[in-house]
Amino acid sequence: MPHDMTHEGVNEEIQRCIEECINCIKTCNYCFDACLKEEDASHMAACIRLTRECADICTYAASAMTRQSPFIVEICNLCATVCEICAKECAEHEHEHCRECAKVCRSCAEACRRMAA
Amino acid sequence: MPHDMTHEGVNEEIQRCIEECINCIKTCNYCFDACLKEEDASHMAACIRLTRECADICTYAASAMTRQSPFIVEICNLCATVCEICAKECAEHEHEHCRECAKVCRSCAEACRRMAA
Amino acid sequence: MPHDMTHEGVNEEIQRCIEECINCIKTCNYCFDACLKEEDASHMAACIRLTRECADICTYAASAMTRQSPFIVEICNLCATVCEICAKECAEHEHEHCRECAKVCRSCAEACRRMAA
Amino acid sequence: MPHDMTHEGVNEEIQRCIEECINCIKTCNYCFDACLKEEDASHMAACIRLTRECADICTYAASAMTRQSPFIVEICNLCATVCEICAKECAEHEHEHCRECAKVCRSCAEACRRMAA
């Protein structure tokens, strides 16, 4: 286990939520990129927008958690909301990258809601 | 003149460069949004990618300048490079939002190069 | 009036809120920097933390508004909360940069609440 | 191995560099926080500034790598520079969190230089 996992006060639940956010950033940005390469990119406009939004808020949330921000509850609630809406949009498309993205976004949303609880 | 323009040590050249970056963020994000609404969004993929990249680095550069980062020279040089490449891509399209974006990116690139000099 | 102020759909209220956020980023980062230079920096720890938090959320909010994010309401509400708490902390200190920061944070909080209404 | 590690085109070297950056964000933000709690916070001002700078550029670099930015080389070079300077500052302090931070920053700098090569 890397040293940073054992910092006092950075408990396991935060660590799991940070990992979920990082996974979500990767998957959303991968989906963003893949959508732009699709022949029907015009049809993917909502997905392209939302994966960018989702990657951005997850980046912000992950960074806030690493610095023990006093606003983690509010930030994780916002992050969960964005992840849920991104998941819903992605779930409407057949592309493998969209289906995967929907799954990862839902998982991140759940981790963020638990974090905020 | 708003109070923040007169803080000691935040000289006029930095202020001008910050304003150029903010203008560039707005224009790149507007172009990003407008490209996604175009019927030929697939054709605009490179533009969509680069306007996002450019808005992101300008956000980072503007933020770094407001906090008097010791890395302003390096950051502004990177920002100029991204702005120049985004401008070049935008200049190849006929859409009014792309032409405008090309102009603003070139102007921001110049301000960043001066800042880094 | 610069071109970007007249983009369709980017209405005046958003523009005002973006300007408030940018002003708040500058002022918070200035206060962050100035607090670190104070002899009693240890006493300023909460202020240093909160001005960083506040500059970060304002950067995120300003960026989200320029890209017409569908989450502007939620983001501006969060930004207002952070600005209010930063203002409250800054108001407890006598330093000129803290008093100024408290004022600008309150003003930004109000603009964000109006935006989110 | 999580799914995101096997995305085509996101090769292992990028993955390693992303992980180094994420580790560096965590460690720098932990050091930032710990420095603010030290009795000699005034003496730690340079460290507080640089750990913030370093966490910010690492966040930007990690995000850029996940979206396959065309500017990865330039961004990783900048990230390496900031990490090296942060490492140098941290290495001058006796606090355990500073020594650990120096080590992680040096490791991240090396990963970024390899990435940019």
Keywords:
homotetramer, 117 residues, Substrate Binding Domain Of Dnak, Chain:A, Domain 2, 4 helices, elongated, disordered N terminus
Notes on the structure:
The structure is a homotetramer of 117-residue chains. Chain A is mainly α and 117 residues long. Chain A has a single domain (10-116), classed as Substrate Binding Domain Of Dnak, Chain:A, Domain 2 (Up-down Bundle). Chain A is 76% helix and 0% strand. Chain A has four helices and no strands. Chains in contact: A-B, A-C, A-D, B-C, B-D, C-D. Chain B binds chain C through residues 2-4, 7, 10, 18, 22-23, 25-27, 29-30, 32-33, 55, 59, 62-63, 66-68, 100, 104, and chain C through 2-4, 7, 10, 18, 22-23, 25-27, 29-30, 32-33, 55, 59, 62-63, 66-68, 100, 104. Chains A, B, C, D: Pfam families: Csp (PF03860). Chains A, B, C, D: InterPro entries: Csp_YhjQ, YHJQ-like. Chains A, B, C, D: This is Four-helix bundle copper-binding protein.
